[in-house]
C-alpha cells in the first residue's frame, strides 16, 4: 500500500461514522493537482460537489402538451422527419427480380405499380405520422389488418394473405407489451404480443395483436436498461432536451420582461412618506391617477414645479442579444440541428452561405433515414406486397430496396453541371464497353426523373457471359473448316523483281536519257 493510501486509511479511522460517510461521498481528489491553501482539488473545492441528478420522468400528457403547445418542442421533434420525407423515397426493384428478367424496363413498371398501391393506402402520410410519434412518445405503430385465416394474436401467415382489410397508424399509448420471446428464440427479450387498447371506441376494441402484424418506428437512442424501464419502448427525444428547453424558455421570458420594463416612468412627490404615514394615501392615489390619466389623454404631464417631478429611467439592455443567441445555440445543440433550422432563418453575416450547417444537417438526416426509417418502411411495403390481390400477386421481390433521393440538390446551375459531368463519364463507359447504352438510358431517365445512380442488370450480364463461354467452347470443340479456294486458274505469285527489268540500252530505270 502506498503512503498516500495509508494516510487516507488513517484519516478515515480518526473520523466519526457520520464524518467518514461524508468524506466517502465527497473525497479529496488524488488524481490531479491540489492546492491546500485555496482548496482547489480538495474536499473544500466547490466543483467536487457537482454531480448529475436524474431528471423527472415526462408523462404522456406532458409530452403531448409540449408537442402541441411549445413551438420549439414541435420543431425539434418534427423538423428531421419533415426533412427526411421532403423529397419522398424510391421503391427500387432490380431487373433480375422482375416478372420478365430479360427486360429491365419490366422492373421499373413493377416499381411504378407498387408506388400506386402505396398511394391508394396513403402510406406516405402514415409513415410521417408514425415517425413523428416515434420521436415524440418513443414509438409509432402501423397495424396491418390482414385476412390470412388466422386470429390477430397469432403470427402472420405471410404465404396466405388474401387481402389487407386496413392499415392503421397509432402511437405507443395505444399498445402495451403483453408477452416477450424467450430464449433460445432469436428474438429473445423482444415483444411477442401486445395489448391493443385504442383511445376511441371507433378505432376498435381491446385485444391482443402479434408483433408480426405491426411495424414499429422507434424514438431516441435508448439504453437497454432504460428500454426495459419504459415497458419495451424507446425514450422520447424531449427527455434529453427537456432541461435545456426549460432554461431557454425561462431566458427568453426574462428578456421579454426586461423589455417591458425597459423604460420606466418615475413620479417624484414631495413628502411622500409623510403623506402615507399621516393617512393621506387616498390623496396620493388620486394625484397619481390624475397624472396617469392626463398623460394618456394628451401625452403630456402637468406637475407642480416646486413639489413634483417626472422622469423616465431606462434599463440596461446591452448584451441581451448575445445572451439570446447563446441560448438558441445551446438548444440547437441539444436537438442536434443547426440554429438556422431551429429558428427557421437564413444565415446572416458577411459571406455567410450556411453551406457547412446544411452539410452537417443533411448528414444527420441521412443517418436518420438509414437507421430509423429504411427498415420499417421496407417491412411495411413487404407486407403490402404479400397480399394476393396486390400489384405482385403475393410475391415480394428478393432485391426490393428503399432509396432516399439526395437531400443536397444545389442550384439549377449546379445540377446542370453535374448532369454534364455524368454524361461525359457515361460516354467514356459506353465507348470502353463498360456500360451499354441501354443501361445508361434506363439508369438516368427513370419514372421519378433524372437520376445520377447507375443500375446494372447483373443477371442479364451473367447470362450473356455464360452464352459467350458456351459459344467459345463450342467453337473450340468444332473448329470451322478452312475456306475453300475459288475455282479457276490461280495467278502465279510473282517474285519481288518480277515487275522490273533492265533497259536494253543500258540506261538506268526511272531516268530520262538524252
Walkthrough of the structure:
This protein has 514 residues and is an alpha+beta fold. Strands 3-2-7 form a three-stranded antiparallel sheet. A three-stranded antiparallel sheet has the order 4-5-6, with no helix packed on it. Strands 1-10 form a two-stranded antiparallel sheet. Helices cover 45% and strands 13% of the residues. The N and C termini lie far apart (126 Å).
Question: Briefly, what is this?
Answer:
By secondary structure, the chain is α+β, with helices and mostly antiparallel strands.
**Helix proportion:** 40-55%
Q: Can you tell me the residue ranges where pLDDT is under 50 for at least 5 consecutive residues?
A: 18-26, 97-102, 498-514
Q: Secondary-structure element order, as H and E? A: HHHHEHHEEEEEEHHEHHEHHHEHHEEH
Biggest sheet character: 3 strands, antiparallel
Strand order in the sheet with the most strands:
3-2-7
Beta-strand share of residues: 5-15%
* Terminal-residue CA separation: 126 Å
Supply the key terms:
514 residues; alpha+beta; three-stranded antiparallel β-sheet; elongated
What's the topology here?
Layout: H1 3-14, H2 17-25, H3 60-69, H4 71-84, E1 90-93, H5 104-121, H6 123-137, E2 139-147, E3 163-171, E4 175-180, E5 191-196, E6 207-210, E7 214-218, H7 224-229, H8 237-260, E8 263-269, H9 272-277, H10 281-298, E9 308-314, H11 320-335, H12 339-343, H13 355-385, E10 400-403, H14 412-431, H15 437-444, E11 445-446, E12 449-450, H16 458-477
Helix pairs in contact: 3-4, 4-6, 4-13, 8-11
Amino acid at each position: 500500500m502506498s503512503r498516500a493510501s495509508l494516510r487516507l486509511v488513517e484519516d478515515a479511522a480518526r473520523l466519526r461514522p457520520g464524518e467518514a460517510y461524508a468524506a466517502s461521498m465527497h473525497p479529496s481528489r488524488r488524481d490531479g493537482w491540489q492546492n491546500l491553501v485555496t482548496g482547489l482539488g480538495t474536499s473544500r473545492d466547490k466543483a467536487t460537489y457537482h454531480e448529475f441528478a436524474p431528471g423527472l420522468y415526462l408523462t404522456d400528457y406532458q409530452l403531448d402538451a409540449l408537442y402541441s403547445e411549445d413551438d420549439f418542442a414541435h420543431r425539434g421533434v418534427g423538423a428531421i422527419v419533415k426533412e427526411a420525407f421532403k423529397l419522398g423515397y424510391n421503391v427500387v426493384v432490380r431487373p433480375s427480380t422482375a416478372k420478365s428478367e430479360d427486360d429491365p424496363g419490366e422492373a421499373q413498371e413493377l416499381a411504378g405499380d407498387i408506388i400506386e398501391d402505396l398511394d391508394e393506402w396513403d402510406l406516405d402520410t402514415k409513415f410521417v405520422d408514425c415517425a413523428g410519434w416515434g420521436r415524440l412518445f418513443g414509438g409509432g405503430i402501423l397495424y396491418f389488418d390482414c385476412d390470412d385465416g388466422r386470429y390477430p394474436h397469432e403470427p402472420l401467415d405471410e404465404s396466405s394473405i388474401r387481402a389487407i382489410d386496413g392499415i392503421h397508424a397509432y402511437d405507443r399509448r395505444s399498445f402495451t407489451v403483453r408477452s416477450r420471446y424467450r430464449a433460445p428464440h432469436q428474438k429473445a427479450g423482444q415483444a411477442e404480443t401486445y395489448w391493443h387498447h385504442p383511445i376511441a371506441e371507433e378505432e376498435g376494441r381491446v385485444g391482443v395483436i402479434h408483433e408480426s402484424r405491426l411495424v414499429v418506428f422507434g424514438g431516441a437512442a435508448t439504453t437497454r436498461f432504460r428500454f426495459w424501464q419504459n415497458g419495451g419502448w424507446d425514450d422520447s427525444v424531449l427527455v434529453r432536451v427537456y432541461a435545456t428547453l426549460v432554461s431557454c424558455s425561462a431566458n427568453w421570458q426574462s428578456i421579454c420582461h426586461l423589455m417591458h420594463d425597459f423604460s420606466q416612468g418615475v413620479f417624484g412627490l414631495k413628502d411622500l412618506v409623510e403623506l402615507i404615514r399621516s393617512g393621506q394615501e387616498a390623496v396620493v392615489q388620486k394625484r397619481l391617477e390624475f397624472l396617469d390619466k392626463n398623460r394618456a389623454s394628451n401625452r403630456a404631464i402637468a406637475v407642480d414645479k416646486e413639489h413634483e417631478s417626472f422622469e423616465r429611467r431606462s434599463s440596461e439592455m446591452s448584451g441581451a442579444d448575445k445572451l439570446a443567441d447563446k441560448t438558441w445555440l445551446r438548444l440547437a445543440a441539444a436537438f442536434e440541428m443547426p440554429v438556422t433550422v431551429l429558428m427557421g432563418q437564413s444565415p446572416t453575416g458577411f459571406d455567410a452561405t450556411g453551406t457547412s450547417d446544411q452539410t452537417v444537417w443533411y448528414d444527420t438526416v441521412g443517418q436518420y433515414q438509414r437507421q430509423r426509417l429504411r427498415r420499417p418502411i421496407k417491412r411495411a411495403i413487404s407486407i403490402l406486397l404479400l397480399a394476393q390481390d396486390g400489384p405482385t400477386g403475393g410475391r415480394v421481390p428478393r432485391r426490393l430496396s428503399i432509396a432516399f433521393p439526395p437531400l443536397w440538390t444545389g442550384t439549377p446551375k449546379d445540377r446542370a453541371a453535374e448532369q454534364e459531368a455524368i454524361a461525359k463519364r457515361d460516354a467514356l463507359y459506353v465507348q470502353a464497353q463498360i456500360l451499354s447504352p441501354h443501361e445508361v438510358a434506363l439508369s438516368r431517365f427513370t419514372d421519378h426523373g433524372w437520376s445520377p445512380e447507375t443500375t446494372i442488370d447483373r443477371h442479364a450480364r451473367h447470362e450473356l457471359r455464360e452464352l459467350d463461354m458456351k459459344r467459345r467452347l463450342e467453337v473450340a470443340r468444332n473448329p470451322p473448316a478452312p475456306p475453300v479456294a475459288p475455282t479457276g486458274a490461280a495467278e502465279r505469285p510473282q517474285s519481288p523483281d518480277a515487275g522490273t527489268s533492265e533497259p536494253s540500252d543500258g540506261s538506268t530505270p526511272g531516268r530520262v536519257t538524252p
